[in-house]
C-alpha cells in the first residue's frame, strides 16, 4: 500500500479531486488530503475526511504534537497536487511555506506531481510558464493541462485532466524510479510521436464487420506516458475501449485502409512512429450494399483480400525526418520464448522497422488486460524484456526508443 498525499488548491476543479481521491483509495492507496484554505471554499473538510478516513488540516498549528508540516511530506511515497492553481504553482516555485500544503511540498523527498488547472490566459502567462519551468528544473513532475471547456463559456488549455487520466499517471509513477527519472528529464521534449492504437474493423455489410479483441489500452498508455515525458503526441485511434488521454491530438480511423492513409500522412513530421494498433490482415473483397440475410443454406462464403501492410509501408517510404524511429508490434501465438523470438526476428526482417515489440497472445493473453509482458528486439539484439501493467510497459518502450539516440 502506497502513501499518497493529495494536495488540493483553491480552484473550481477541486470537485474533480473528490473522484480522484475515491479512485486512489479504491486502488488500495492510503491517501491523506491536504487542501489549501481557499480549497475549502469549494469542497469542505467534512467531505475530504469522509472520503479519505483521515483528519484534514490546512494550517501548521493543528495537531502540532505530530509535527504534520514535516511528517506528512517525509512519510509520503508520492505527493499529487490536483488541481494546482496559478497561485499554488507560484508559491511552490518561490519556496513559500504559508500553509500546510506548501510546508509539505518543502519537506517531501518523494516525487511530487503537479496537475495544473486554471483559465487559459493564466496558464499561458509568462509568469506561470516560468514557475512551471522552475518546478520542473527542481525535479517536480508537471502534467500539462487538458484542452477543453473551462468555467463559464470559456474553452482552451487549462482544464484539469479527468480523474481517470490522473490516476493512470499516478499508477505509472509509483514504484518506477526509471519512469520518474524519464519524466523529470522530459526526454521526449521537442519530439513529435505518432501512436496507433486499438483494432481496425473491416466492413462486411452496413451492420457487420471483421474485427479483433484489441482494447487499445497499450496504445493509450503509450500516448499518456509520451505526453508526460514531454512529447507532442498524435494518437491514431481505431476502435478503442479506453478513454482518450489528455495531452494527445486524436485522429479517428476505422479500417486498415484508413489507418494507412492517416499514418502515411503523419509520417513526414514524426520523430517516432509506434504501431501498437491491431490491424486487420484481410478485408472483404466486396462490401454488401445491404444487410446479409440468412438464405437457409447454413453457410456463408466470404472472399477476403489482403490489406495494406501499414508497418512495412512506413518502413519503406523513407518519408520521415532524419533519425525517425519506427516501432512495430507483433502479437504471436508462440510455444515458448525461443519460438517467440524466432517469429519476431522473421517479422522484423520482413517489416524493416527499428524495433519490434513481441507479445505472446496464446490463450487470449494481453488483449483487454491491464497487464502485459513483452520482449523488445532490434535487428541485432534483444533490447529488453519486461512485464507489468501497460503503463510500465509503455515507459520501457519509450526507454528503448530514446536509447536508439543515446
From TrEMBL:
| Flavoprotein domain sequence ranges | 3-171
Cofactor details (free text): Binds 1 FMN per subunit.
**TM annotation in the entry:** none
**What keywords sit in the KW lines?**
Decarboxylase, Flavoprotein, FMN, Ligase, Lyase, Magnesium, Metal-binding, Multifunctional enzyme
Q: Which GO terms describe its biological process?
A: coenzyme A biosynthetic process; pantothenate catabolic process
Question: Tell me, what is one Gene Ontology molecular-function annotation carried by this entry?
Answer: phosphopantothenoylcysteine decarboxylase activity
Can you tell me which residues bind CTP? 281, 291, 329, 347, 351
Annotated stretches, region: Phosphopantothenate--cysteine ligase? 193-406
Q: Which cofactor does it need?
A: FMN; Mg(2+)
- Tell me yes or no: is NAD among this UniProt entry's keywords: no
The ranges of region (Phosphopantothenoylcysteine decarboxylase) come to 1-192
Q: Locate the DNA/pantothenate metabolism flavoprotein C-terminal domain: which residues? A: 188-402
Q: Which reaction does it catalyse?
A: N-[(R)-4-phosphopantothenoyl]-L-cysteine + H(+) = (R)-4'-phosphopantetheine + CO2; (R)-4'-phosphopantothenate + L-cysteine + CTP = N-[(R)-4-phosphopantothenoyl]-L-cysteine + CMP + diphosphate + H(+)
The biological pathway it contributes to is:
Cofactor biosynthesis; coenzyme A biosynthesis; CoA from (R)-pantothenate: step 3/5; Cofactor biosynthesis; coenzyme A biosynthesis; CoA from (R)-pantothenate: step 2/5
Family statement: In the N-terminal section; belongs to the HFCD (homo-oligomeric flavin containing Cys decarboxylase) superfamily. In the C-terminal section; belongs to the PPC synthetase family.
- What is this protein for, i.e. what is its function? Catalyzes two sequential steps in the biosynthesis of coenzyme A. In the first step cysteine is conjugated to 4'-phosphopantothenate to form 4-phosphopantothenoylcysteine. In the second step the latter compound is decarboxylated to form 4'-phosphopantotheine.
Return the NCBIfam families for the record. coaBC_dfp
Annotated protein name in UniProt: Coenzyme A biosynthesis bifunctional protein CoaBC
In its UniProt entry, the species of origin is given as Propioniciclava coleopterorum
